[in-house]
Specification:
This protein is α+β, with helices and mostly antiparallel strands and about 325 residues long. The chain is about 20% helix and about 30% strand.
Length: about 325
């Protein structure tokens, strides 16, 4: 909770009450662009992080759209915007992995001060953003290979009070499909994921997914803007009545199906489709056109995303199918 009439600092960036400030967290061979908004009244600190995966453009564009809409003079608390977390991946246009160290930034949290470039980015965001915030939204979309329908991840920890707070935050993100995730690590020193890093430190966090195939889709970006604005109202940081999502569809479990082979992928279903257990999600051929595998759904449910571009590597995701559990 940020007290009224105090400066707010993230890394080298400082904003006086009622002011916005932008700057860079410098890491030597890369840097993280950050904007902070410091309100004029007491309130929580909300972190909005885009670009953990640099090819997921709608979240990055959403923060560009949201930035001029926030008036710090009318804000309670503070907002930290990480405009692009993974600059090497963004500038290099790479899916999942950094072009520098071949690591997935969203699998190396909380990072290492003396690690590879991805580990140092994670370490900086953990220490200078996550440790400073009270709530966090990790903003994602379908990467350059993923055809994805919008949804959010609601991580469950087994701690009733924290789970209630996370569930409340998820319910005000504005997305009617909510994936219940019970499998995230619980060790703060090996949290792996950005949102999970906040949660292992007792801070409610949600992962938002909107966008598909790395397309800079304005509609998806606006969904994320609407999400952030509604969460600001929900947390009492801006004026207005927050809207709880109506008739949410809870998905539990939602297994990620991985590829048994390396080759050329042919998807057989579309995002948002309902499939039965055993439905063929994709076929894989070798590089001479011979079919070497079929990938089938292990459950009956909804396709949250399907990889829809030809390259596929053994062990990498092919898709995710969520089992509908209407317990709202």
């Amino acid at each position: 909770m940020l007290p009224m009439n105090s400066d707010f600092q993230v890394g080298p960036i400082t904003a006086a009450p009622g002011k916005m400030a932008s700057g860079w967290i410098e890491l030597g061979d890369t840097a993280i662009p950050v904007t902070i908004f410091n309100g004029t009244r007491d309130g929580p600190v909300l972190a909005l992080i885009a670009g953990n995966h640099g090819y997921e453009y709608p979240p990055i564009l959403a923060l560009q759209m949201l930035r001029p809409k926030i008036n710090p003079k009318k804000l309670s608390g503070a907002i930290i915007m990480v405009q692009v977390a993974n600059m090497p991946s963004f500038l290099g246009r790479t899916v999942y992995f950094s072009p520098v160290d071949q690591k997935n930034l969203n699998r190396v949290y909380p990072g290492k001060a003396d690690g590879t470039i991805s580990e140092r980015i994670a370490f900086a965001i953990t220490g200078q953003v996550i440790e400073r915030c009270d709530y966090l939204l990790d903003l994602h979309g379908g990467d350059g290979n993923e055809s994805l329908r919008p949804y959010v991840y609601q991580i469950e920890t087994g701690q009733p009070e924290l789970d209630d707070r996370i569930g409340g935050l998820a319910a005000y993100c504005g997305f009617d499909h909510i994936l219940i995730d019970r499998g995230r690590p619980r060790d703060p020193a090996a949290s792996l994921y950005c949102a999970n890093t906040a949660i292992t430190r007792g801070k409610p966090a949600v992962t938002v997914e909107a966008g598909f195939l790395g397309v800079p889709d304005e509609k998806s970006a606006r969904l994320i803007v609407d999400c952030a604005e509604n969460v600001l109202r929900f947390l009492g940081m801006t004026q207005g009545a927050a809207q709880r999502v109506k008739k949410p569809v809870y998905l539990d479990p939602a297994p990620v199906i991985t590829s048994p082979e390396t080759g050329i992928l042919y998807p057989k279903v579309k995002r948002d489709a309902m499939v039965n257990k055993g439905t063929v999600l994709a076929e894989i051929t070798d590089f001479f056109g011979r079919r070497i595998a079929q990938v089938k759904s292990p459950v009956k449910g909804k396709v949250l995303y399907i990889v829809a571009t030809p390259p596929i590597t053994k062990g990498q995701p092919v898709g995710c199918v969520g089992v509908i559990n209407r317990r709202a």
